[in-house]
Specification:
This protein has about 150 residues and is an alpha+beta fold. Helices cover about 30% and strands about 35% of the residues. This is Sortase-like acyltransferase.
């Protein structure tokens, strides 16, 4: 398995859009098309890493530099170590960008993600609500201090 930048491997764009749109509801987002995604990728304040093996895109890790180190992870098949590999690469990239910490907002009901972040050294930092359109969701901020 390889972890590579989507920006540098744009041939994976359609695969990324398909996987991302499968997770749109869990990401509290609407679906996006390829043109919207290509425009979004032009933003210098994000890094999108993808896990690929053979001809398959297995997972995605996103680092939002403009949101002080917020990250998002989603994988095609959970519990295969893919998210952990993506997280390690995001940590390396964040260190190169001199960020002090990474953080993620996790919905209260997403127990698998909560366990993942705790098991990977993140701390349960605070409760925080997130409003998307007119709906408010309750979640937890997990933080990780970088070296």
């Amino acid at each position: 398995m390889k972890i590579v930048s989507l920006k540098e491997n744009i041939v994976w764009l359609e695969n990324y859009v398909a996987l991302r749109n499968q997770y749109a509801k869990a990401l509290f987002s609407s679906e996006m098309n390829s043109d919207e995604t290509r425009d979004w990728l032009n933003n210098r304040d994000i890094e999108v890493l993808i896990a690929i093996e053979n001809d398959a895109l297995l997972g995605v890790g996103i680092l939002y530099l403009n949101k002080k180190g917020e990250i998002t992870l989603f994988v095609k098949k959970p519990n295969q170590g893919i998210a952990k590999l993506l997280l390690e690469k995001l940590q390396d990239y964040a260190n190169q960008k001199n960020l002090l910490e990474l953080w993620a907002w996790v919905h209260d009901e997403n127990k698998a993600s909560q366990k993942f972040f705790i098991n990977n050294g993140f701390i349960d930092f605070s409760k925080e609500n997130k409003t998307v359109n007119t709906t408010t969701y309750s979640g937890i901020i997990y933080k990780y201090r970088l070296d």
